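Design request, tokens follow.
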């Protein structure tokens, strides 16, 4: 009896050690297979079940997450191999899903392309109004025609000039003189020489009466900076009479550059700075002490509110 108990003890010990020392295969689907790993090749793993004389089973490596050897407790992890080429059919247009695998440069290029497609459908004519010019004695409107896929613009401005600043100064001077006259009239013992000096110092300011016309041509070359925003430069020519500057008449030539911005489908705005020269007309000879043969430096600042026609 004692002999059989020893045999049973050693059999149980053997089974326990075998169970502890068995290998394991962990699949990617979460299943754990106790087994005896027989071989690991480049693409497959072969193992036998723990049941004696069981068949050899072979699995592809892509199905296996890791293996564990029971005797040595060594663990091997396997990465899932990706195919060399992945072909994916995508029926969604790129314009409606810009975030898919798109770099910053590609996104900017796509948005610019979308804007150019929209801009091509917009009118090529722009009617412009120069609101700031009203304060300097000019009522100005212009018409610009865009050509060559809206990369070139030819603009014709027309200004009605008047001495707005002179009118304001005349009104201010007359109000001041009127107030001074009512004050001095209350005093009857004023020295005659002092009265003469007062009258000469308070002589009323006279504005330049009448209106003048200034017109010319601009040629603008446009370069896209980003959607709805362009940089432009080009020559600017004007000829006419400026009543605010004493009614002088002459020719100006400038090189101007600025920014052109589109807002929506119809509205635009333009800010520009120009530098160049001014040449007096021969009709101005002998007036104002200016030399008609002299060329004077000239500069301008313009802000235009435009509407596409």
């Amino acid at each position: 009896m004692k002999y059989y108990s020893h045999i049973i003890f050693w059999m149980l010990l053997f089974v326990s050690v075998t169970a502890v020392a068995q290998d394991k295969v962990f699949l990617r689907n979460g299943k754990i297979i106790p087994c005896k790993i027989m071989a690991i090749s480049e693409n497959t793993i072969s193992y036998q079940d723990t049941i004696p004389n069981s068949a050899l089973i072979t699995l592809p490596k892509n199905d296996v997450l890791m293996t564990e050897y029971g005797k040595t407790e060594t663990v091997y992890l396997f990465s899932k191999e990706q195919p060399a080429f992945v072909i994916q059919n995508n029926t969604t247009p790129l314009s409606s899903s810009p975030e898919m695998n798109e770099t910053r440069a590609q996104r900017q290029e796509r948005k610019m392309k979308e804007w150019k497609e929209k801009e091509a459908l917009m009118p090529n004519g722009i009617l412009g109004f120069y609101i700031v010019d009203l304060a300097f004695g000019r009522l100005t409107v212009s018409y610009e025609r865009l050509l060559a896929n809206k990369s070139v613009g030819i603009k014709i401005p027309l200004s009605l000039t008047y001495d707005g600043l002179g009118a304001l100064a005349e009104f201010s001077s007359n109000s001041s003189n009127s107030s001074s006259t009512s004050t001095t009239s209350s005093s009857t013992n004023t020295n005659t020489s002092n009265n003469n000096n007062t009258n000469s110092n308070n002589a009323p300011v006279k504005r330049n009466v009448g209106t003048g016309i200034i017109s010319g041509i601009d040629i603008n070359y446009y370069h896209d900076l980003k959607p709805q925003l362009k940089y432009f430069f080009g020559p600017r020519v004007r000829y006419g009479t400026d009543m605010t500057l004493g009614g002088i008449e002459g020719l100006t030539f400038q090189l101007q550059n600025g920014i052109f911005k589109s807002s929506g489908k119809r509205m635009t705005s333009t800010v520009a700075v120009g530098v160049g020269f001014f040449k007096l007309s021969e009709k101005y000879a002998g007036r104002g002490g200016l030399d008609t043969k002299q060329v004077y430096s000239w500069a301008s600042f313009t802000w235009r509110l435009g509407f596409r026609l």
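Comment from the thread starter after seeing the answer: thanks! Residues 13-19, 83-87, 182-200 have pLDDT under 50 and may be disordered.
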